[in-house]
Write a structure and sequence with these properties.
heterodimer; A: 280 residues; mainly alpha; elongated; B: 14 helices; globular
Chain lengths: 280, 316
């Protein structure tokens, strides 16, 4: 426990990292607690209150159907954060497996990494729209497609770190003691990959929120009736001339969250073991 | 040296082959029949079957893949289902805005990224360094289409300085086309400068730690001379590399940006193709873009080898 406390103290020694963590905590807490406490319906329309500018009644104004933009941002946070979290989890699970296999077994390295290279030859967003088009546009398929898009990135980082770890003395020792390969991977290599993986989680979390917005804008994202920050902007584009706030505030929510995630990830990277730092 | 070149080239060919398989598999796994979509509700089963035969969609998948590869080898990317023109022609018709947009944007990204990265490295740990790092991260946190929409509102709708969308009328002058590209290029340039900033900073820091820099300082050279002649000159190779890499990444960025600004480029083409399930166009564009990416990376590696003999010797 004291080790965790000292790590956290070192992580938050940089004020900007602490600020980022607090912002994220606030965003997550609001997303979870507020809709549950308030009970207000983010899809409730009010025809008489269409496209009202921000005021004390509607902090972020109302949209083309008279819905409260702030309320929808808070509800949208649930979906946007969910997309980020599931995408990051999926990409990390698949990427870690591929990366460990490639890094640990020399014979798999070539084939796995060529596949990773080939996948990375497609621009992220292009691969994303192609996959969603194939799978069909739904919340789950967007997350699945984005997880596939970001898997190669994780695989590269994990492979590089595994290559370093494989040569270290404790792995040799485990091998000499007759520990089975899968045990070495699970109990000796994997725990040491935690920090580089955590860095990737924060970055992919941020990229996924951005990518979801991009997919929604291109018309191949989450169905428009689900309020994510991306679908909110995409849905209000044609009113941007008259009601700028309808696209401004959901975008600011994305920027703030993505920036905080990446700042946190950068802070974690600073704490990394110098041996693994190059790999991340 | 030759062995290194051949191995690198072989690797690129393998990657391209996997890319081809992935592209083919992706578009064939798709749900939704493009022929039925094209012919509409009025089409009879016989019409659809006939069209499927015409586009070769009735053959078994391995045969389709073989046929496709054979055509590719002859430089034929297939025929668009909706545009009534060959995919290669459709790509060529739309290459100009995309190419100019990418070059324009890279120029902006480099003009921001290189000086900012250098400053951050020279004054490492200072407030300036912190500020540059934060701005770089901010660039990676802004959705490009959103920034585009905001710039359109401010600079096109309200101030009227730039056109809000399009690429000018056909046959319009070069200056007018550049004007149409200004806002999209700023969006892409700003957002892609982050990578150049980080890379330049890291490259400069690497070299600042070299013995020859210490020697240059020890023999009393002015700091300016050390920076320009010893540090910057040696950092140039990695910096040029990352600029090349940015060009490759930029191609993906144009997909969204061209849609925001309604530029008639390759990105716009592929988005429409995806929405209409125009498989040949999707296949051709994905393949060409991935191939360009692989080739740029290969080129960068080769340049590196020429510029820095340590790399090719290390591989032995």
């Amino acid at each position: 426990m004291s080790r965790l406390a000292s790590t956290l103290r070192r992580l938050f020694a940089r004020k900007i990292v602490l600020a980022a963590a607090l912002v994220l905590l606030l965003v997550v807490a609001t997303a979870i607690v507020f809709p549950w406490v308030s009970g207000a319906d983010p899809n409730e329309t009010a025809v008489t209150q269409r496209l009202h500018a921000p005021s004390s009644g509607h902090w972020a104004g109302t949209d083309e159907l008279g819905r409260d933009v702030m309320l929808r941002i808070v509800h949208g946070a649930r979906y946007s954060l969910l997309i980020g979290a599931i995408t990051a989890a999926g990409a990390v699970a698949a990427g870690t497996l591929l990366g460990m296999l490639a890094g640990f077994f020399r014979r798999l390295d070539g084939p796995v990494m060529r596949l990773v290279d080939a996948m990375m030859a497609f621009p992220d967003i292009l691969l994303g729209i192609a996959l969603v088009a194939i799978l069909g546009a739904s919340l789950w398929n967007v997350m699945l497609a984005l997880a596939v898009v970001y898997t190669p990135r994780v695989a590269r980082v994990v492979r590089a770190a595994t290559l370093v770890l494989r040569e270290l003395l404790f792995v040799d020792a485990a091998r000499a003691l007759g520990v089975r390969t899968h045990r070495i991977l699970a109990s000796h290599i994997l725990p040491n990959l935690a920090s580089p993986i955590l860095v990737q989680v924060t970055f992919i979390f941020a990229y996924a929120i951005l990518a979801e917005a991009g997919l929604s804008f291109l018309g191949v994202g989450v169905p428009p009736e689900i309020p994510t920050w991306g679908t909110m902007i995409a849905g209000s584009i044609e009113y941007a001339d008259r009601a700028f706030w309808t696209i401004l505030s959901p975008g600011l929510a994305i920027v703030l969250t993505a920036l905080s995630l990446q700042t946190l990830g950068d802070g974690v990277r600073d704490l990394l073991d110098p041996k693994l730092k190059k790999a991340s | 040296m030759l062995r290194f070149l051949l191995r690198r080239l072989g690797g690129a060919v393998v990657v391209l082959a996997i890319v081809a398989v992935l592209v083919f598999a992706l578009t064939r796994l798709a749900s939704g029949d493009p022929v039925a979509l094209l012919l509409g509700d009025q089409a009879t089963a016989a019409d659809i079957a006939q069209a499927r035969t015409r586009y070769g969609l009735d053959q078994p998948l391995p045969t389709q893949f073989g046929l496709w590869l054979g055509e590719l080898a002859q430089g034929n990317l297939g025929q668009s289902i909706f545009l009534q023109q060959p995919v290669a022609q459709a790509l060529l018709d739309r290459a100009e805005p995309t190419l100019f947009l990418a070059l324009f944007a890279v120029a902006i990204a480099a003009l921001i990224g290189v000086p900012a990265g250098m400053a951050a490295a020279i004054w490492r740990g200072s407030a300036a360094d912190q500020a540059v790092s934060t701005v770089a991260m901010l660039g990676a946190s802004v959705p490009s289409f959103w920034l585009g929409l905001i710039l359109i509102q401010v600079f096109a709708v309200h101030l009227g300085w730039f056109p809000a969308s399009g690429y000018g009328d056909p046959g319009t002058g070069f200056a007018d086309r550049l004007l149409h590209l200004a806002l999209p290029a700023v969006v892409l340039g700003l957002l892609n400068s982050a990578l150049i900033i980080r890379f330049t900073r890291a490259a400069m820091l690497d070299i600042l730690g070299e013995d020859y820099v210490r020697t240059a300082r020890a023999k009393g050279l002015a700091e300016r001379t050390v920076m320009l002649k010893h540090v910057l000159r040696n950092a140039l190779v990695p910096i040029i590399t990352v600029i090349g890499l940015t060009v490759a990444l930029m191609i993906g960025g144009t997909v969204v940006t061209e849609t925001v600004f309604n530029l008639p480029g390759v990105g716009n083409l592929v988005v429409r193709a995806v929405l209409r399930r125009d498989y040949p166009v999707i296949q051709g564009t994905l393949l060409v873009i991935a191939a360009i990416y692989v080739l740029i990376n290969l080129l960068i590696d080769l340049l590196y080898t020429v510029a820095d003999p340590r790399i090719r010797l290390e591989g032995k």
